[in-house]
Amino acid sequence: DTAVSQTPKYLVTQMGNDKSIKCEQNLGHDTMYWYKQDSKKFLKIMFSYNNKELIINETVPNRFSPKSPDKAHLNLHINSLELGDSAVYFCASSHMDETQYFGPGTRLLVL
Amino acid sequence: AQTVTQSQPEMSVQEAETVTLSCTYDTSESNYYLFWYKQPPSRQMILVIRQEAYKQQNATENRFSVNFQKAAKSFSLKISDSQLGDTAMYFCAFMSTFFGNEKLTFGTGTRLTIIP
Predict the structure, then answer these.
(1) Which end of chain A has fewer CB atoms < 10 Å from its terminal CB, N or C?
(2) Does A35 touch chain B (CB under 8 A)?
(3) Which residues of chain B fall short of a pLDDT of 70?
């Protein structure tokens, strides 16, 4: 019955590697988001998709590439991982400008 | 661009007492949404309460209520009869109603500890 799910929950990897985080929602929402929470707990939007179309693309390095194969899924691929990419990444979903519901987060640690 | 400010990095209160968390924001828009989210140690982001700016009535959800002062751009959260499970980081957030800008802009959070 999980509304917004993310895999994996934890990801430990070496600098320079490429990794992906997957997100799925079963709420029937049309908009999905990626947020990054840094080590000081500050949360910031990265991307949003509405009906598979990219709507928001904040100033994120182009090593980060979101992909939305359908309305229920939004994946985040990160190339050439750097130490500064270590953070918790949250997926969220909503219907238009309604309340956003968050996934459990993926803690990424780059060594 | 909108900004959200939470001026209390940490607060603590005895169980069963009432506590108020402060939040101010800055925007030039007249219609928007404001939220309080809770993040317990499990790190899950949980919606506490939501307020539409066009509604004058303050939102309430059981023990949680807000004091929304639109002119002052203030949005405080009051937790009544605090419980140990209320221990968490609390984030205030702003969201525009303009299509293409429905992102949450968060404050820096307030770490709330409920003392038994």
Answers:
(1) N
(2) yes
(3) none
